[in-house]
């Protein structure tokens, strides 16, 4: 015995969402059908539009339904700095700090031979072209501090070496609000190696 | 700074799902946009069809896109027993045991004055009509063993008292595979009160 075919289909379709197993999918389906038909309809419509219309910014590759994302379309950004991130969510996190006024380049992933993701999938050619065409002076590599992220950054460092552009990465060290006791050895070693005098503000 | 308007709308829409907060919704949206457009489209289509087409079985009120659910449409079920459950998911759980061959009546909720759910919302009139029109001999009240479920069952016991029909409820006691040590006192008290001889199979 199962639910009726359409309900079973709906439960199956909900399982495409990350972190949703059979029981959660059933719970979600029952909730929408019993209590929130309007929410379900809105979700269906929005999802359908988003899947069809959301593409990539022509300049930085982030996800957007417009030709250029808001950052690239803005006239107020510093065109001499490009920050390379892995995902649109990383870009959003950096934007929300308000600490950066340059532009971005979104790789939409990281190098991962196991998953078959190589340089071609991450838009490295586009990035090189951009650096040749535009007056970029500095590239900040802000990939994640994971094995794949650092490998990707290292690859980019070598790729960008021949160009006349400064390549930097985000400072690594102890995060704010943490306790030294609970930090991993790798983070502490890097924090030691990168220690700075109290009079240094932002060296280059 | 936020994502582009359509992506923000999608994240908002995903939050109608139970158990999905702002961070999960963002993760789901990014996953669908970056990695599973096809799954997202299927979900949108199925959801839209389900919201429009799934209604209630004319006989037992369970969720189905057909006029009659499979149980009510089946010619093989025992028409003299009706099992009253709170939700379609409860009905499914009982069906999957294979231990019951009668029919169901789905309340689609339980009495809850706080949420404004009264007898009218739970189809009690329909149930009474059904019991008058059809040759039902026994009604099994299988509401959940919660405060609301038991209140609902008690209300039904009084409502059905004038009718010439046997009203029963599911046996209460220790669940299989548990350990007595970890069971709550209420369950253990009921198990004591309902203890049975080893020669009793199914008394009535």
UniProtKB/TrEMBL annotation, chains A, B:
Source organism, top-level taxon = Bacteria
Residue spans making up a coiled coil are none
Identify a single GO molecular function assigned to this protein: DNA binding
Q: Which PROSITE patterns match?
A: RECR, TOPRIM
Give UniProt keywords alphabetically: DNA damage, DNA recombination, DNA repair, Metal-binding, Zinc, Zinc-finger
A Pfam family hit = RecR_HhH
The Gene Ontology biological process terms listed for this entry are: DNA recombination; DNA repair
Q: Which InterPro entries match?
A: DNA_Rcmb_RecR, Rcmb_RecR, Rcmb_RecR_Znf, TOPRIM_dom, TOPRIM_RecR
Zinc finger extent (C4-type): 57-72
The Toprim domain extends over 80-175
Could you tell me what this protein does?
A: May play a role in DNA repair. It seems to be involved in an RecBC-independent recombinational process of DNA repair. It may act with RecF and RecO.
The family assignment reads: Belongs to the RecR family.
Which protein, by its recorded name, is this?
Recombination protein RecR
């Amino acid at each position: 015995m199962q639910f009726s075919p359409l309900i079973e289909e709906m439960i199956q379709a909900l399982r495409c969402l990350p972190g949703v197993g059979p029981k959660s999918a059933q719970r979600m389906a029952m909730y929408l059908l019993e209590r929130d038909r309007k929410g379900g309809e809105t979700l269906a419509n929005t999802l359908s539009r988003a899947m069809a219309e959301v593409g990539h910014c022509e300049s930085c590759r982030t996800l957007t339904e417009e030709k250029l994302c808001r950052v690239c379309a803005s006239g107020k950004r510093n065109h001499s700095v490009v920050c390379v991130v892995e995902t649109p969510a990383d870009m959003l996190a950096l934007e929300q700090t308000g600490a950066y006024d340059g532009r971005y380049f979104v790789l939409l992933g990281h190098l991962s031979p196991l998953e078959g993701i190589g340089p071609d999938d991450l838009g490295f050619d586009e990035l090189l072209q951009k650096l040749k065409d535009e007056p970029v002076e500095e590239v900040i590599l802000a990939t994640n501090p994971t094995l794949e992220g650092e490998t990707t950054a290292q690859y980019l460092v070598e790729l960008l070496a021949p160009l006349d552009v400064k390549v930097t990465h985000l400072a690594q060290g102890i995060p704010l609000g943490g306790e030294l006791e609970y930090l991993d050895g790798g983070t502490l070693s890097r924090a030691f190696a990168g220690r700075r005098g109290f009079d240094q503000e932002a060296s280059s």
